[in-house]
Amino acid sequence: MVATVLHATDVTAEELERTTQFVSSLPQGSPVAVMLQHVLAAIDRGVDVSFLESDKELTPNQAAGLLNVSRPHLLKIMDRGLLEYRLVGTNRRIAMADLLDYIERHERGNAYVNGLLGTREHLRRETRDEAAELTDTDVAELNALFTSQ
What we know:
Layout: E1 4-6, H1 13-25, H2 31-44, E2 49-51, E3 57-58, H3 60-67, H4 71-79, E4 86-88, E5 91-95, H5 96-131, H6 136-147
Antiparallel strand pairs: 1-2, 3-5, 4-5
C-alpha cells in the first residue's frame, strides 16, 4: 500500500512523552510542530495514523480503498472527469495530489448541499408552523372531534 501506518499500540508511553517534549521545543505554530501535535493527539486517543506522500501515484484499487468506495464507482468518477488520472499503457494512475484535490472538492460540495438542505428544511418548517398556528379554541374543537368518535 502507499500509506505508511503508525499503529498507536506500537508507541510506548515513554516514546509518546519524549516526542511531546520535543514538540514543545519547536517554534510555536511551525508546520512540523502542528503535524506532530496532531499525530501525538491521535496516538494518545489510540488511533492509528497513516502517512501519505503527495507525490505518489495510486492504482484505481488503491484510490478506491482510500476513498472507501468500490473500484467500479471510482472508475465512473474518473470517466466523468471528476478525478484526474493518467494512462500508463492501458492502466490508469492517480496522483495523490489529484486524489486529495478531489476529496477537498467533494467535501466542499457536500457541505454546500447540506447547507442548502438545512436552510430549505428550516424554511419548510417555519412556513408550516406559520400556516398551522392553532388557537386554544382550534385545539379544543379538534379534541372534541377526536373524543366524539
